[in-house]
Design goal:
295 residues; oxidoreductase activity, acting on the CH-OH group of donors, NAD or NADP as acceptor; NAD; 12 helices; oxidoreductase; Rossmann fold; alpha/beta; N-(1-d-carboxylethyl)-l-norvaline Dehydrogenase, domain 2; 6-stranded parallel beta sheet; 3-stranded mixed beta sheet; 13% strand; HIBADH-related; globular; NAD binding
């Protein structure tokens, strides 16, 4: 197997994935428009380039990019020289973009797989991400070596191109709704004199529990850390995209749409650079040391 892989996007997630692949024995080259991100990758032993065009024709590529638009402009560059076998897009992208790029890659004898991931930077650094995979069977086979290295086999093939994007967006909007509802519930507990951490632990062992109540609030909100590495801007984007893809098929999810409105309001109040766990400052300010954002 040719173990040359390009990683495009060396931020919190992409940088960690590049290091994981390097540690697993892959020959990794990376690109990011940020010199700071490139320097951090180089310090970890990753060879970097200052132009994504220098990575064209690399047998395997992993994308970790900020939007579907950037994915759409990057993939044709990577395919501009022969040699690419498979492109694995871990971006939380849009289904239509992935379907179009899958066709483009296939026309050039390559595979494109949408494989948005869950597990955060810790999962990326430890090779234990979960991936939501959309691809043809042939494309999945071509991309399997990379998927195995990044997830340890923890991925689900959900259907054809774009399917991974659909399910990842649904996952994220469900998490977004849960971050709102758990915050409100723990605020009620506190108002009744119950320690929110104890309430979260009790709920997490019962039918109302979730990763949000078991891990996110205890680790990042109740401690005041707010250092998950995932931004408010990205979560608000994903929530809005989930409602958008619902509307594209005539679905109008009222509860999820209401949760999305709370996230857009939080984005306006806190800014895109805030940690996504700071949603608690707008839905349950009594749980945070910072309190509600200034009006």
């Amino acid at each position: 197997m040719n173990q040359h892989v390009a990683v495009v996007g060396l931020g919190s997630m992409g940088g960690a994935m590049a290091v994981t692949l390097h540690r697993a024995g892959w020959q990794v080259s990376g690109f990011d428009p940020s010199p700071v991100a490139r320097s951090a990758a180089e310090a970890a032993g990753i060879r970097t380039v200052d132009d994504v065009g220098h990575l064209a024709g690399t047998p395997y590529a992993v994308l970790s990019l900020p939007s579907a638009g950037v994915v759409g402009t990057t993939v044709p560059v990577l395919l501009s020289r022969p040699g690419t076998l498979a492109i694995v897009d871990t971006t939380t992208s849009e289904p239509a973009t992935s379907a179009s790029l899958s066709s483009l890659a296939a026309d050039q004898g390559a595979a494109f797989v949408d494989a948005p991931v869950s597990g955060g930077r810790d999962g990326a650094a430890e090779g234990r991400l979960t991936a939501f995979v959309g691809a043809t069977e042939q494309a999945l086979d071509a991309a399997r070596p990379v998927l195995e290295a990044l997830t340890g086999g923890q991925y689900e093939h959900l259907g054809g191109p774009g399917s991974g994007n659909v399910v990842k967006l649904l996952n994220n909007v469900l998490a977004a709704a849960n971050l709102v509802s758990v915050g409100e519930a723990l605020a009620i507990a506190k108002a009744h004199g119950v320690d929110p951490a104890m309430a979260a632990a009790g709920i997490s062992g019962a039918s109302g529990g979730s990763q949000v109540s078991a891990a996110m609030y205890p680790k990042w909100v109740l401690t005041g850390a707010h250092d998950s590495g995932f931004s408010m801007g990205l979560m608000a984007r994903d929530a809005a995209l989930a409602i958008e893809i619902a509307a594209q098929r005539g679905e109008r999810p009222e509860l999820l749409a209401a949760a999305n409105q709370r996230w857009q309001a939080a984005l306006a109040a806190l800014g895109s650079g805030a940690d996504f766990t700071e949603i608690a400052r707008t839905v349950a300010p009594c749980l945070t040391s910072e309190g509600a954002p200034a009006a």
